[in-house]
Specification:
The protein is mainly beta and 400 residues long. The chain has six helices and 28 strands.
Length: 400
């Protein structure tokens, strides 16, 4: 943006003329205190899903002036999921490298903690060399809003920071690869999110193995999975760098980052992995782990929270079976099971009564239903009283 001063009006003009999902690059070495329209920029950028990246020359104001004036730029980059990068001596190679990289980077969560449980929790995550920036969003409890930036600073073990919401940018002079730790005190912090700007992420789907079709194989389900069901996790790696990466582990974690289940990933090709899994009974997130050819640990979290469903099974009792029967006589009662789920179910059936007035005979209590299959079965009632009415008491059928 020119070679004089940074003006909010110029960014607003560029955003207004740009298409949706655009990238705005601001080149500048001077900063003006024209911050009154920053909120307008945030709203416009979010509405158009645009990212604003700042490339800052090391010429211009002295260090103290830059530190004061740069806060608005950092906040704007943070709010729009963009980056702020220092370009030494207007280095053209660095500028081209940044533009190429930002076109292929995505904001990927690494920790989504809500709520923060217990009195104090130490959370850790790993940074690899593909990460260009880290975003922190910390939700301080309402009664703790009096905290100063120096109080917030004490919440961190690594890195050393002093703001609630902030953005770390990495360049060749400041690379932090390895484990990062964040101390979240539940008496102060309600929840927090940590997001990576990286060129490595993944797509995930739950699949069923269907062997009854002319082309057997894995087929994705189009609904949330059922608690306790056996499925296959299908993972496609998306990367825009030349690094060789091998992912080896799949984890299901809860909203407090506690490990629920752990599975080995089976590599199909360079970008495709599968794993046979069992769906947990609570909401969960999906995390994968791997290493690149530099032996750096790579962790990625799937941004979509999985909310498993309970079993969807209709049970219909044939009302036409109702009649009067004499003591010792038997009556057959039909019932129908309908599997509305995308996967095969094994159903255990148990007949219960509101009052113990019948002897119940169920010759088969385990049924296997394919997806969307309907099965009609029956059980027998033997009257234990002199004259008994088969009424709604026999309509209570438990399936699990």
């Amino acid at each position: 943006m020119g070679n004089n001063k940074f003006h909010m009006n110029a960014i607003i003009t560029d955003l207004s003329l740009s298409n949706d999902y655009c990238f705005v690059y601001v080149f500048t070495h001077e900063f003006d205190n024209d911050n009154k329209r920053s909120d307008e920029i945030f709203i416009l950028a979010k509405r158009k899903n645009c990212k604003i990246h700042f490339l800052l020359s090391d010429r211009g104001s002295n260090l103290q002036q830059r530190a004061t004036k740069i806060r608005a730029i950092e906040q704007m980059a943070f709010e729009t999921l963009g980056m702020k990068v220092n370009i030494p001596n207007n280095n053209l190679y660095s500028i081209i490298k940044l533009i190429t990289y930002t076109l292929n980077t995505h904001s990927i969560p690494i920790l989504l903690i809500n709520p923060v449980s217990s009195n104090s929790n130490l959370f850790s995550f790993h940074i690899d060399s593909s990460v260009e920036a880290i975003q922190f969003v910390i939700n301080i409890k309402l009664e703790c809003q009096f905290l100063t930036k120096f109080d917030i600073k004490n919440l961190f073990i690594s890195p050393d920071q002093s703001q609630m919401n902030f953005l770390f940018n990495f360049d060749d002079q400041h690379v932090k690869i390895g484990q990062w730790q964040f101390q979240a005190n539940s008496s102060l912090i309600k929840s927090f999110e940590i997001t990576l700007n990286t060129s490595i992420h993944f797509e995930h789907s739950f699949n069923i193995l269907n062997t009854n079709l002319s082309h057997p194989g894995l087929y994705p389900i189009d609904t949330e999975p059922i608690k306790g069901s056996q499925l296959y996790s299908f993972i496609r790696i998306l990367k825009y760098i030349s690094q060789e990466i091998i992912f080896y582990e799949l984890e299901f974690i809860d909203a407090s980052n506690n490990l629920l289940q752990q599975y080995k990933l089976i590599k199909q090709n360079k970008l495709i992995y599968i794993s046979k899994i069992v769906i947990p009974s609570i909401d969960f997130f999906i995390k994968i782990k791997g290493k690149n050819n530099r032996n750096e640990l790579i962790e990625r979290l799937y941004s979509h929270k999985i909310i498993p469903r309970t079993l969807e099974l209709n049970v219909i009792v044939d009302g036409k079976s109702s009649s009067y029967i004499q003591s010792g006589q038997k009556a057959k009662v039909k019932f129908t099971l309908i599997n509305h789920n995308p996967n095969t179910l094994t159903v255990d059936v148990k007949i219960t009564q509101t009052l113990p007035i019948f002897d119940i005979i169920l010759n088969k209590n385990k049924f296997i239903l394919n997806s969307n299959e309907i099965q009609t079965n029956c059980f027998e009632l033997k009257a234990s009283n002199k004259l008994t009415l088969i009424d709604s008491s026999i309509r209570y059928i438990n399936c699990c």
